[in-house]
Specification:
The complex is a heterodimer of chains A (about 300) and B (about 290).
Chain A lengths: L2 H5 L5 H42 L5 H8 L10 H13 L9 H32 L1 H14 L4 H14 L5 H24 L4 H9 L4 H36 L8 H10 L3 H32 L5
Chain B lengths: L6 H5 L2 H14 L6 E14 L2 E14 L3 E5 L6 H8 L7 E6 L4 H6 L3 E4 L11 H11 L4 H14 L15 H13 L5 E5 L7 H18 L2 E6 L2 H7 L2 E6 L4 E7 L14 H16 L6
Parallel strand pairs in B: 3-7, 3-8, 5-6, 6-7
Antiparallel strand pairs in B: 1-2, 1-4, 8-9
Classes of the chains: A mainly alpha (about 300), B alpha/beta (about 290).
Chain lengths: ~300, ~290
């Protein structure tokens, strides 16, 4: 198979590149195929009813064609979602309320602000918990409790309370997403800041290092892998938080608002397109954090 | 001996001298300064399975410039005794002085360097920055840090590896880096807890010789924990034989080979005689019992 490769030296990344991506392509293909199958099966009844109501003769292929192009399908076909996505992204100026870019931006900005607040709050909490034993016992149960309250119950309260004191728009949404996303950061960082070896801590003691020095030169650098792992979890939660915050308040803009109007008017394709947009945003956010994590690991001398 | 122009070094010779006088006065004994002076030291750990007496009534004097080895089977308290000297454990009974002050005071004055069985280098720091770490913590300025790091990396034969990360070095090299790190702030006392225990015999022999050279050149006091009889006899001026349950001192054996000894002395009858006395001590402490 590689006789030509022996003669003609190829770029070294090529075979590995293909080999690495083949499974991904296969999985994606299978998912899309299953999606089409689901669309056909779920929409068939609706299409058949329509044919029978109009009293036209129809064949199986007519039904299948109908399921894949229904205007308000139960499950829209992938190409319909893609079409709607492309249309709502490119056919309107980005500041138009009909543009998906506009809605995505509204949600993304709330997500990023909420993520920043949540991550910072999570780190500060973890630092306090690690350094004060009493806090570990007194604070941690409350933190865990805070996550057991359904966010859908809290979101309207937060929006209404902030609205009453004249704060609307991005900030209350950010608070809701921060409320959700600080938790994994706190848990991860408590673990990370306590991760140094006893020997490494003993060494600090033999040098009679101060608490601040132990933190800056040992605990913080030791916790970096934990930090990025929890940031990756927390950024997606933060996005979910921002979308959820848009739902109960009948927000005018944002991916949540888009989902809401879609369900009011039975625009299933629009709902699915908005979901795909949310998935794309989450993927990009995780990719950014991943890139920063790799860069940091490289600068901290990681072996790979 | 390395005498760098650090503010610390200007103070340091004065401190042990003061300690010297008071230690000699208090006990009314010997003239040479005592780096470690322990009397009646006991330490009991409270564990889930009950109380464990790690040290029972330990008396020990270590003079300036000595190379003292603690030898014994595991559980004999040799590491615990070293940690007591370093103020990493606190005796439940008895008194111990390090350089004429309490271990805590000695630790706060940064008078000893501690080397663990594992190199415990910080993986995110290069070798150079690992050696610099205690200097950063102790507030040496940047020029001094660089200078000392270079000097001590050279002393342990690691010049040229400044920019490598720990994982890029072999175990023996990592341990040498950790020795350079302990030397970097020039403590008069080195506490070494089985520093070569995890290394193979060839590397260990080599590092033993290097350690002897270093001791000879710097005139430091070394306290060395080991469970290897040849290592203890080869390195030491004094061998402390310990025994478990409870951890106690069985015998203290003087070992007066010339300071510039080489590995060859291990074949001499004198060496074998000392080794036999160590073994006899271990046996009398039931160290060989099943």
């Amino acid at each position: 198979m590689t006789s030509s490769a022996l003669v003609l030296p190829r770029p070294a990344w090529r075979p590995a590149f293909i080999a690495e991506r083949t499974p991904i392509v296969v999985v994606v293909a299978i998912i899309i195929a299953l999606w089409y199958l689901a669309a056909i099966l779920m929409n068939a009844a609706q299409v058949r009813d329509a044919f029978e109501r109009d009293e036209v003769k129809y064949t199986l292929s007519d039904v299948i064609a109908g399921t894949l192009s229904a205007e308000r399908p139960v499950v829209p076909a992938p190409h319909q979602v893609l079409e709607n996505l492309v249309e709502s992204v490119f056919d309107y100026p980005p500041d138009s309320p009909r543009s998906l870019l506009y809605h995505s931006w509204v949600t993304l900005s709330a997500t990023v602000v909420g993520f920043a607040i949540g991550a910072l709050f999570g780190i500060v909490l973890a630092v306090l918990i690690v350094h004060m034993r009493t806090l570990q016992k007194s604070l941690l149960p409350w933190i865990i409790c805070s996550q057991m309250v359904p966010i859908l119950a809290i979101a309207p309260i937060v929006i209404v309370v902030f609205g009453a004191i004249g704060i609307r728009g991005l900030f209350p949404k950010s608070i809701i997403s921060a409320y959700l996303c600080f938790f994994p950061v706190t848990i991860g960082m408590v673990k990370g800041l306590s991760s140094p070896d006893p020997i490494q801590l003993d060494l600090m003691r033999t040098w009679s290092a101060s608490k601040v020095q132990v933190f800056a030169k040992l605990r913080w650098p030791s916790s970096i892998p934990f930090l990025f792992a929890s940031l990756k979890v927390s950024v997606t939660i933060s996005l979910v938080g921002a979308i959820v915050a848009e739902l109960p308040t009948g927000a005018q803009a944002g991916i949540g608002a888009r989902l809401l109007t879609g369900s009011y008017y039975g625009q299933t394709v629009q709902i699915w397109a908005a979901l795909v947009a949310a998935a794309i945003i989450a993927t990009v956010l995780i990719a950014i954090i991943d890139a920063v994590a790799r860069l940091t690991a490289w600068r901290m001398g990681a072996s790979a | 001996m390395d005498v760098g122009p650090s503010p610390e070094l200007l103070v340091k010779p004065a401190e042990p001298a003061a300690g010297k006088l008071s230690a000699a006065d208090a006990h009314g004994t010997r003239a040479p300064a005592l780096t470690v002076d322990a009397s009646g030291v006991s330490l009991t750990f409270h564990t889930r399975d009950g109380e464990v007496q790690a040290l029972a009534n330990v008396d020990l004097q270590i003079s300036d410039g000595d190379f003292v080895s603690f030898i014994g089977p595991s559980g004999c308290g040799k590491t615990t005794l070293l940690r007591v000297i370093a103020d990493l454990e606190h005796p439940t009974e008895g008194t111990i002085m390090v350089n004429g002050v309490t271990p805590e005071e000695a630790r706060l004055r940064r008078q000893y360097g501690y080397i663990f069985q594992a190199p415990a280098l910080y993986p995110w720091r290069t070798i150079e920055r690992n050696v610099m770490l205690p200097l950063e913590i102790m507030g040496f300025d940047a020029r001094e840090r660089r200078e000392r790091t270079q000097r001590y990396l050279k002393l342990v034969n690691l010049s040229g590896f400044e920019r490598k990360f720990p994982w890029q070095l072999s175990g023996g090299m990592q341990q040498r880096a950790s020795i350079a790190r302990a030397l970097s702030f020039d403590p008069a006392l080195l506490l070494m807890d089985e520093p070569f225990g995890a290394l193979d015999e060839i590397v260990r022999d080599h590092l033993n010789e290097q350690l002897l050279r270093l001791w000879e050149e710097t005139g430091k006091t070394v306290v060395f924990v080991t469970h290897s009889i040849p290592e203890a006899v080869f390195l030491s001026t004094k061998i402390v034989v310990m025994s478990p349950r409870p951890g106690r001192i069985i015998d203290i054996i003087p070992c007066d080979f010339p300071r510039d000894r080489t590995l060859e002395i291990r074949e001499t009858p004198e060496f074998i005689k000392v080794a036999q006395r160590v073994r006899a001590g271990l046996r009398s402490g039931h160290s060989y019992d099943e």
